[in-house]
Amino acid sequence: MSFKKAQPGHSGQRGSGGGLWGALFCCGRPEAEEEAPSHQQPTPSHLPPHHLVPAASPMHVGEPFIGPIQLQDVNKPCLVLDLDETLVHSSFKPVHNPDYIIPVEIDGNVTDVYVLKRPWVDYFMEEMGKIYEIVVFTASLSKYADPLLDMLDTSHVIRWRLFRESCYPHHGNYVKDLTSLGREMGKIIIIDNSPHSYAFQPQNALPISSFIDDPADNDLLDAIPYLQELARCADVSEVLVANGGYVPRKSFHSRGIPVPDRKFA
Q1: The CA-based dihedral angle spanning residues 64, 67, 68, 72, taken in that order and rounded to the nearest 10 degrees
Q2: Is the pLDDT of residue 227 over 70?
Q3: 20 to 30 A from 114, CA-CA: which of 10, 53, 86, 238?
Q4: Is pLDDT of 81 > 60?
Q5: Cβ atoms within 10 Å, residue 223
């Protein structure tokens, strides 16, 4: 794959969600934003708008939120993954054939959360764990997200988990400040369906659509070839900026790559 190269030249207030939903999850669709500047590539219709100018300076000071790079991850770039509407979709309402049901205590009452996995998430996690240090960074509460990740991480590739208390409040949203990871910024990619989440470092983001319940969703599968190429780049943020945040999008099928067995979907 050929990318364009760049040319020289914590816990706190709640986000926009309300009620039980906002108290537990943080996975709403981003609000409409202004049209992207003309120097950027047009936004693909199924992806959120992506502005490459940071909304504010990083807020993190002090020690990193995660530990040193483990031996098996030395020389790997860092892939930061959102949880809700990126890897899974969760609901308080019963859904047909949920992958998981998570009992969560809220205000003294136990409520079931019904979870649907995004198609191909198991295969995606297994493949990405081979070439990236995996961090799941969610604005949801740990009492819901932690047991869910215990079940979701079947390949045991998630090295670090960060929850709402590791986010920074900014204009009513929870922002994931990537400087808090203590990793080289040119070696970090974040995949998140909400642009608000990476507002401090949009140059490190690979946008993805919001997953609700579409069984034909292939976004995680289609992201694998891009991420395999990006893992070999000296500075992933340079490549993402040069491509307006949207590396050339091709379906897995159109690349002539053998599609994995559907059992992984």
Answers
A1: -140
A2: yes
A3: 10
A4: yes
A5: 20
Enzyme catalytic residues: 82, 84
253 compared with 239, residue with greater pLDDT: 239
Spans of all domains in the chain: 77-89+118-264
Cα separation, 145 vs 148, whole angstroms: 5
Q: Which residues pair with 264 in a beta bridge?
A: none
Residues 119 and 213: their CA atoms lie apart, in Å, by 9
Residues 6+ apart with CB under 8 A from 2: none
- CA 22 – CA 185 distance, rounded (Å): 30
Residue 148 three-state SS: helix
Q: What is the pLDDT of residues 173-192, one digit of tens each?
A: 999 999 999 999 999 999 99
Tell me which DSSP letter residue 118 carries.
P
Mean pLDDT of all residues belonging to the chain: 83
DSSP letter, residue 227: H
Identity at 166, one-letter amino acid code: S
CB 123 within 8 A of CB 265: yes
At 124 the three-state DSSP class reads helix
pLDDT tens digits, residue range 111-170? Answer: 999 999 999 999 999 999 999 999 999 999 999 999 999 999 999 999 999 999 999 999
Residue 119 has a CB neighbour count (10 Å cut-off) of: 20
